[in-house]
Amino acid sequence: MYIDPHAHMVSRTTDDYEAMAAAGVVALIEPAFWVGQPRTFVGTYVDYLSSLVGWERFRAGQFGIRHYCTIGLNSKEANNEALAEGVMEWLPRFAMKEGVVAIGEIGYDEQTPLEEKYFRAQLALAKELALPVMVHTPHRDKKRGTSRSMDVCEEMGLDPSWVVIDHNNEETVRETLDRGYWAGFSIYPSTKMGNARMVELLRHYGGDRIIVDSACDWGISDCLGVAKTARLALASGIDAQVVRQVTYANALCVYGKSGQIHESDWLDPPEIDQRTLYEGNSILRGGREPRIEHPRQAADDLLID
């Protein structure tokens, strides 16, 4: 069984939830992020955060997947100061809701002064609320941005063992691990990391403090990135214990510090009943037959037939 600790499911279809469940994903974490269209009002951001702790949590459960999220102001929209100030006022209220396992994804995009201002403010919030942090590292000038992200975390007094530095690559992983942080890798086609490269990193570094995620979103991405990487790693001779660490146990360990995610959530899951409504709405459309069943007890192996 797998945890995908970075999946933007608000951008995905219910087919993806079905595929992930069939591949062995028992839980996922959905970070707050930039949805592509710039938001111009605080209210639209509040509605988005509400969907992360509400509708998406319900929708995932209708397919037997436990849904958690992280709450934050993303780096790109931190550059809209009026919007950012409004969002910051709302964040504490959302950060304390059920199923919120971290502040994130936060950090740098273009590494501007405004991005740094709100990055620091959210690190202070995470520290105040005793929540882990998910850090987004920039696509451009990544090595400098990753080092700077860790510098700022340390200046703000964060314990590295509570911080996941995400979107690592071969250029950044050594420093991330040497400084005591969790190193996230997003299996995202063409831009962040391919799973064959990931297997070679596991062969070199092992599984300690390494986390694999899909980062699937509205771009060309794969919601089965974690499951496919696990299969490829096993087929390539990576030890099953290492695969389990990076696709399941490490995410549970660091995000479990929030007190909001527990293995018993999916080992003893509630019944799937697609007749259930959320604020008057179901996931069904047009007379479709609902699934009513008890989820299959998750197997403890990592192979997907």
Offer a quick outline of the entry.
Helix content is 40%, strand content 14%.
Strand residues, percent: 5-15%
Low-confidence stretches: 299-305
Shape: globular
* Largest sheet strand order: 1-2-3-4-5-6-7-8
Radius of gyration using CA atoms only: 18 Å
What's the overall average pLDDT, rounded?
94
Order of helices and strands, N to C? EHEHHEHEHEHEHEHEHHHEE
Q: How many helices does DSSP assign?
A: 11
Distance between the termini: 13 Å
SS class:
alpha/beta
What does the largest sheet look like?
8 strands, parallel
- What portion of residues is helical? 40-55%
Number of strands: 10
InterPro entries: Metal_Hydrolase (IPR032466), TatD-like (IPR001130), UCP005295 (IPR012022)
Protein name: TatD family hydrolase
GO molecular function: hydrolase activity, acting on ester bonds; metal ion binding
Keywords: Hydrolase, Metal-binding
